[in-house]
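hey
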């Protein structure tokens, strides 16, 4: 009996290790080059993608290390994308480190992007470390909520 329990534990540990290694490889493979927008607009620095597995398969979540926006303006240039391979809509929300929500998109279809957004308030110049970019995902047919993700980034306001 003890050998059977030990065998089950070893098999479980092996499965967890394989899953973690696979996730690490997928994250490394999906890490892309840095992207940016023209100097007179907001800029985005990407750190790759996070793959979030849900009921409908894998959902690619773009990750950002830093976003730069203009101070004292509500209209901002960005580049938020719902990757074409996703079989879901995305709603993108920006939350400041103090938990103030400053932007929430509508449902963004796969392969579509947002180039301009309007914040709910003007931001003072400064560095907002620990800002949150929240992705909520919804099924294409029934718009039922799927898995989502939150990525932490630095918001530079100049």
């Amino acid at each position: 009996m003890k050998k059977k329990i030990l065998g089950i534990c070893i098999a479980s540990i092996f499965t967890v290790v394989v899953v973690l290694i696979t996730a690490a490889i997928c994250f490394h493979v999906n890490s892309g080059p840095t992207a940016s927008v023209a100097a007179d607009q907001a800029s985005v620095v990407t750190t790759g993608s996070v793959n979030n597995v849900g009921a409908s398969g894998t959902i690619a979540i773009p990750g950002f290390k830093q976003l730069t926006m203009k101070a004292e303006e509500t209209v901002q240039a960005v580049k938020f994308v719902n990757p074409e391979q996703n079989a879901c809509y995305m709603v993108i929300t920006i939350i400041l480190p103090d938990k103030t929500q400053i932007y929430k998109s509508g449902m963004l279809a796969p392969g579509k992007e947002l180039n301009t957004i309007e914040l709910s308030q003007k931001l003072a110049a400064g560095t907002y470390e620990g800002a949150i970019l929240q992705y909520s995902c919804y099924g294409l047919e029934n718009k039922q909520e799927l898995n989502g993700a939150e990525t932490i980034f630095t918001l530079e306001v100049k």
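DSSP finds one helix and eight strands in the chain. Residues 39 and 68 are 10 Å apart (CA to CA).
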